[in-house]
Amino acid sequence: MSFAQSKWGWMNGEIILWENATTHVSAHGLHYGTGVFEGVRCYETPNGPAVFRLDAHLDRLYASAESCGMLIPFNAGELAEAICQVVRRNDFRDCYIRPLCYYGSGVLGLNPRACPVEVAVLAWPWETYLGAEGLEQGVSITISPWRKFHSSMMPTKAKACGQYINSVLALRDALDRGYAEALLLDADGHLAEGSGENLFLVRGNQVITNDECHSILPGITRDSVLRIARDLGFEVEVRTLSVAELLAAEEAFFTGTAAEVTPISEVCRRSGSRFFLCRLVTSGLFATRCVDERLVPGLQCSPRDSNPITNW
């Protein structure tokens, strides 16, 4: 991942140069993690760049802010346009987009209400999170010693900044032990999710995943995969998942905006997972985002041709 090609961003209503997208070190969000964000993909399609399920991502952003008591000072339409502006201005055809809302500088007591809510949009080219090799050959994972926090501790359905220290610790431990990714358990010892991905298991004609009862962040890609699996004729089951079921599964894979659909090839040094359904789902996701909006509604094209950079 590199920011070298990113020349423009958007901050508090204005397109700005990348190097000017800064904040003060006294910002409340920097000290206490008081912010919310989204991760969104823009893909090249036959009709030009298209932002994948933008409405769903913005709905989750505003829901995350509400759960944290934050009022975003721009409406969803304004943020959607800001995202398209950043993609167009950087002349990106395929990129990752990061809308971010956080409490800025005002006070440094725990209550952030006297701090302004700052809003920014960044974008950069970013291949799949777990690597192109991971997409093809699968990734090795380990059960993390760190547990995913319970919804009684922090809002698990919110994509909030500070709580990602949980994921950072889990991933760092996995990497230090020679694995590509961590799988966290919930407070009761059931499977939760990866450091930044939802989990699916396959057994026969069944596609099985868990839900927010098990401390997961319900993903946009997860929802897309559930729809595609049903359309492909698989039986979809959403319920509690155990470590034993993972080890016995015929197939397992991660889903997420950054990771896309990545197969799991090895769990705690035990290998042998096949990738059959993962390949089918990936094909369906590619077809959906590039051609057909019926399976996954909300594909939004950046109107490059109708609003070229030279006319700004």
What this model shows, in words?
The protein is an alpha+beta fold and 312 residues long. It has two domains: 8-126 and 296-311, D-amino Acid Aminotransferase, Chain A, domain 1, CATH 3.30.470.10; 132-274, D-amino Acid Aminotransferase, subunit A, domain 2 (D-amino Acid Aminotransferase, Chain A, domain 2, Alpha-Beta Barrel), CATH 3.20.10. 27% of the residues lie in helices and 28% in strands. The protein has helices spanning 28-32, 54-67, 76-89, 132-137, 165-176, 220-231, 243-248, 276-290, and strands at 8-11, 14-17, 35-37, 40-45, 48-51, 95-103, 117-124, 139-147, 181-185, 191-194, 198-203, 206-209, 235-238, 251-256, 260-267, 270-271, 300-301. Strands 8, 9, 10, 11, 12, 13, 14, 15 and 16 form a nine-stranded mixed beta sheet that branches. A hairpin with a 2-residue loop joins strand 1 and strand 2 (14-17). The longest helix has 15 residues, at 276-290. Mean pLDDT is 88; it is low at 289-312.
In short:
The protein has 312 residues and is α+β, with helices and mostly antiparallel strands.
Computed structural class: alpha+beta
* Average pLDDT number: 88
What is the domain tally?
Answer: 2
Helical residue percent? 25-40%
Give the arrangement of secondary structure elements:
Blueprint: E1 8-11, E2 14-17, H1 28-32, E3 35-37, E4 40-45, E5 48-51, H2 54-67, H3 76-89, E6 95-103, E7 117-124, H4 132-137, E8 139-147, H5 165-176, E9 181-185, E10 191-194, E11 198-203, E12 206-209, H6 220-231, E13 235-238, H7 243-248, E14 251-256, E15 260-267, E16 270-271, H8 276-290, E17 300-301
Parallel strand pairs: 8-9, 8-15, 12-13
Antiparallel strand pairs: 1-2, 1-7, 3-6, 4-5, 4-6, 5-17, 6-7, 9-10, 11-12, 11-14, 14-15, 15-16
